[in-house]
Amino acid sequence: MQNICPTSTGRVSTQVAIVGSGFGGLAAAHYLKQAGFHDFLILERASDVGGVWRDNSYPGCACDVQSHLYSFSFAPNPDWSRAFSPQGEILSYLKRCVQELGLMPHVRLNHDVQQAAWEESSATWCIQTSQGEVRAQHLVGAFGSLSDPLMPKLPGLDAFKGDVFHSANWPKSFNPKGRRIAVMGTGASALQFIPAIQPEVAHMHVFQRTPPWVLPRHDGPISTTARSLFRKLPWLQQLARARVYVHREALALGFLHPRLMARTQAKALRHMHAAVRDPALRKKLTPDYTLGCKRILISNTYYPALAQANVEVITDGVKQVLPDGVVGQDGAFRPVDTIIYGTGFKTKDLPFAHLIHDGKGRTLASAWQGSPQAYMGTTVHGFPNLYLLHGPNIGLGHTSVVYMLEAQARHIAGVIKLARSNGYDAVEPTASAQQRFLTRIEKMMRGTVWVAGGCESWYLDDTGRNSSTWPGFTFSYARAASKVTETDYAWRRIAPVRPASSTTKVSP
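RE: above sequence
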């Protein structure tokens, strides 16, 4: 393997490098500080912090989990304006957390991580960024599993003369008024931007591959009185958060026992039928799989938007894109001047896995061979001092992933603290401990809606295994991750010669 980290006088030495400044990266930084670590950097590829909540600014973008729970336990926000916060408020919250938690001095903006390799002789990760080399003893990857847009190649797309973009790259200057738009996909993002722009467009053709299950969105403003009480009596907001947590945790029962989903499916169908009167459209929008097998979506405006006269739902797919329109598999030509991808993100072949190399040149993607695996969804055998936030089997279908990210961050801080306290240079899970964890996951996964619900989803990897979601209650994961079991890890002293710290300042 070519040495991706040649000796450089401009390198920066730090104890911990965190890649990403979304919820995961900020949680890791906070708990490292709590554990007494102050020598760390947060490498952010963009020009501002915020992760997916910075990148996704399309019309209608908002959270699908109540704000009181979709936030850090250590940084409550009494000023959420609604039960389900819009994107702008969440981004402002994350920016405020960076300032109030004292993390900004650690942030390095415009540092796109291009490759990272473990160097055994120095017991460090050598990280190549767009701004130069960074050396770190520990590497925390808070890349996010929903950070790289997926844009399937459509035949003839290169010849299209109109606008083409993904919802995650929504142009700030784009005006939908009077446009004839083709929307590719009906996932979570499309469900939000379709009703947001539908009243303005001349016509919208929605190309749907598989209809989602959609439940009502029980949203509403949080009164100024309630917000004032949350500020004066923080325990009231803690109580509100606890109520949301318990309610959403109970929803996990349906995912674990799909037969319990029958009543919720009936509710979803009533929700759709109330807005859609046309029998033919109802048929197109009715899923043929168990609710929860694919991501459950919530909206009060999606179905009413699809029922409007200027919207067409097509289930046959795209045959060809022409310079001025789209030809469907049904042979019909539809003139359009804009194509918007609502096709989600690269979750099956995670881009960051191709950038991380072990000491022998093997990439993480090569080690995984299409089926991501990690101990506690966080550390990987064969990759010392590497920690993944929102790693394999950390995703959720029923509640806030921020809860899981905090549990992971505490575990990471515990491992690094134990390594430092005992003078260990390298640590990784043992092969047996990782396999025991995976065996437990497989046992828990049996009979769940993700594997028995009758659908194909992005939760399933190339081998057909669900390597995305945690098949249980979040408190069971947090309890398991709360303790660092020393025997589950291999600890090593390498007595390395550390690379000298650089005198070159890396500016935000």
